[in-house]
Amino acid sequence: MKKKRYNYLIILGWILILAGLLFWGYNFYDDYVMGKKSQEVIVSLSQAIEKKEPSNQFVDNMPTKNINGNDYIGMINIPKIQINLPVLSSWSYALLKIAPNYYSGSYYTNDLVICAHNNWTHFGKLKKLQPNDELQFITANGEVMKYQVTNLTVIEATHIDEMIVNYKKEKSREDWDLTLFTCTPNGIARLAIRAKRI
User: How large is the greatest C-alpha to C-alpha distance in the chain, in angstroms?
Assistant: First the structure.
């Protein structure tokens, strides 16, 4: 009787190990597919954008470039962690599988917020950034906006409105020109990278 129960426990253990490996394999494959899609878009977007110095002219809407049926507001480039990704002009769970998404604000009003999945090919390496690290946002019309990281902060998942700079202004807190955010590895909070234009 004890031997039979022992055999069931061994079988159950192997089933759980196999399920864990399948789950890990799916996540690894999903990360690979997202990275491949982003890199295909970045090649087309890089060819479509001619880089230039930022202008001081305010435009109501951020210009976009359409690649494969999706509109992109530009590209985010973070040399320190080898990230060069397109940024979609809106956000949805489906679009997050392609590239980082526009969440709020504008680069013209210095309150741009961009979100992406926490996987290795998207924003999974953001935690390696430190204050004073530099990054660039290249707009769809080619303007190169340069930023410097001011801080990294973890925000509770239920306080997502704290990502929006205007919320911070109302609370008389520090102001940021760019926020990049993603889930923490366990998914219960959000990692926010705050940066100022330089």
Answer: 81
pLDDT exceeds 90 at position 146: yes
> Is residue 113 a contact partner of residue 165, using CB atoms and an 8 Å limit?
yes
Residue 69: burial class (beta carbons within 10 Å; 0-12, 13-18, 19+): exposed
Does residue 86 fall inside a structural domain? Answer: yes
What is the band of 168 on the pLDDT scale with cuts at 50, 70, 90? Answer: very low
The structure's pTM equals 0.78
State the sign of the Cα–Cα–Cα–Cα dihedral 31, 33, 37, 42. positive
Which domain CATH number covers 122?
A: 2.40.260.10
Question: What is the secondary structure of 13-30 as a DSSP string?
Answer: HHHHHHHHHHHHHHHHHH
Q: Which residues pair with 115 in a beta bridge?
A: 101, 181
Q: Is residue 103 part of a domain?
A: yes
